[in-house]
Amino acid sequence: MTREPMLPAVETFVATVRGLFEQGLSADEVWPQACEPLRDMLRDPSVCEHATTWPTSPAKLGLEGKHANLLFYEDPDYGFVINGLIKKPRAKTTIHDHGKSWTLYGVADGGENVLRFKRTDGGAPGDLPETAAVEETEKVEVGPGFIDFIKPWEIHAEYNGDEPTVAVIVRSQRCGTYVQNIFYKKDKTVEQYYGPDQIPFSFG
Ligand SMILES: [Fe+2]
Q1: How far is the CA of 76 from the centre of ligand 1 (A)?
Q2: Closest C-alpha among 48, 19, 44, 45 to residue 33
Q3: How many angstroms does the Cα of residue 44 sit away from the middle of ligand 1?
Q4: How many angstroms is it from 202 CA to the middle of ligand 1?
Q5: Of 59, 105, 124, 125, which residue is 20 to 30 A from 180 by alpha carbon distance?
Q6: Helix, strand, coil fractions of the chain, as percent rounded to 5
Q7: From CA 137, how far away is CA 55, in angstroms rounded?
């Protein structure tokens, strides 16, 4: 199957990740090793230049959580995807996990606070509970070149700074193919959903 070529920096990244899979590595070996190649891709000026063409409407594209991502690429053999989004200044995601998927959340421009949470109700990762208690464990201020490495079921949130944040997100599988949790701190309820809507867009 032919497809439209993407930016050379993106094609290099895709080829590198495919190479890791072709060596027979498992997901928990591939994804940590993909962080540095993603950082190299984000450093390439063509990526931020390309982001000036990314749509920010409909409004749901401005955030992660129960919103939408641009979908640039889905690997035909290994299933991983490349998403993008531009977050509006001071936008806040929900507190959520990414279900069983692995995520490399790369900041290309702007900056935000990345928060981590733990369950304090004794629940195990991989649960799909109706209620759960979560507590913040970490808050890190991040900027361009930062890769947030999110393991399966890791609970987190992002609070954007005063500028728009351009993010390139690599996921081990496309949203819509796995269930994830949203944790509502005020009443401890948990909602399951299938992740951000996917809006196809060219990275070429
Ligand atoms: Fe997330």
Answers
A1: 24
A2: 19
A3: 24
A4: 22
A5: 59
A6: 20, 35, 45
A7: 34
pLDDT by residue (tens digit) across 82-114? 999 998 899 899 999 999 999 999 999 999 999
Cα–Cα–Cα angle for 148, 152, 155, rounded to 5 degrees: 65
pLDDT tens digits along 15-66: 999 999 999 999 999 999 999 999 999 999 999 999 999 987 766 666 655 6
Query: How far apart are alpha carbons 130 and 21 in whole angstroms?
Result: 36
Classified as helix, coil or strand, 173 is coil
Residue 173: CATH number of its domain: 2.60.120.10
Judging by DSSP bridges, how do beta strands 81-87 and 95-96 pair with one another?
Answer: unpaired
**Phi, psi dihedrals of residue 125, rounded to the nearest 5°:** -60, 140
Looking at the domain assignment, is residue 184 inside a domain? yes
Does a structural domain hold residue 1?
no
Question: What is the domain range of residue 28?
Answer: 8-197
CB-based contacts of 69, cutoff 8 Å, min separation 6: 61, 83, 84, 85, 169, 175, 196, 197, 198, 199
Helix axis angle, 8-22 to 27-43, nearest 10°: 160
Ligand 1 centroid vs 2 CA: distance in angstroms?
31
